[in-house]
Amino acid sequence: MSDNRPHDPIESDLSDLGLPGLLDSVKAQIGPEATLLDQPPPDVWAGIEAALSTEPDLSHDNDQLASSPNSVTSLDHHRRNRRPAGILLVAVAASVIAALAIGGIFSDDSRIVGEIDLAALTGNDSLGTAKIVEQAGVTRLDISFEGELAASDASYELWVIDPEIENMHSLGTITSSGAGDSGSFELPSGVDIADFPIVDISLEPDDGNPAHSGDSHFRGVLGI
Fold first, then answer.
1. Domain shared by 173 and 154, yes or no
2. Mean pLDDT for the chain overall
3. Whose C-alpha in 40, 66, 76, 111 is 20 to 30 A from the C-alpha of 138?
4. Do 29 and 70 share a structural domain?
5. For residues 8 and 22, is the Cβ–Cβ distance under 8 A?
């Protein structure tokens, strides 16, 4: 059965360069949902221009031919060393695309690995939800507020706590002006959310003491 796929000039150029599988490899790494950049970085064009400017200068040979009409100079070595600009451009561009794809520039690698409701410790009030998001080697908690934090002279602080409620880490102060607000809090380096699955929001007085006040208002356990 004949192959009815349309001819791809880039694939032909890469085949001429002895790299027939490079384009498929790049496409596989980028993935079907890749988002192309509006404009490539300036150093991409600089690299392409530098590569294209390496063609040999034949002006010296032309001067020799003009000054010595009886001599014959072979230009075969120049022809052998010159690579068509189009093929060279394809090779450079393919290399750049492959490097960008491997670096994850064309894709959003964030993923949600856990989510729970944050409920009041007294009563049935719900503050909102907390999601664990992992992206580029960093873990963070994204909180979406459905309710409002009660006004207070003290501040609300977000914590992650181990199951024994012995060790904990503060992720920062929470500010919310009402339902619909959201906040993002990055976990400290080296802290594994699996070891600190309890998400706690406490009311902290302005007393200069960084320790947990013991006055927790909202809490939830992340199932991951």
1. yes
2. 72
3. 40
4. yes
5. no
- Do the beta carbons of residue 199 and residue 130 sit within 8 Å? yes
Residue written as token pair 């007393």: 207
Instruction: Please state the length of the chain.
Output: 224
* pTM reported for the whole predicted model: 0.52
Q: Minimal CA–CA distance to 218: which of 144, 148, 119, 125? A: 119
Say if residue 183 is in the same domain as residue 141: yes
Average pLDDT over residues 78-84: 52
Total of domains in the chain: 2
Q: Residue 204: give its domain's CATH number.
A: 2.60.40.200
Angstrom distance (rounded) from CA 162 to CA 73: 82
Share of the chain above pLDDT 90, in %: 29
Query: Among 81, 102, 123, where does a domain finish?
Result: 102
Residue 26: predicted pLDDT: 53
Residue 36 pLDDT level (bands cut at 50, 70, 90): very low
Can you give the residue range of the structural domain that contains 69? 9-102
DSSP 170: E
Is there a single domain that holds both residue 93 and residue 127?
Answer: no
Closest CA to 84 of 159, 171, 9: 9
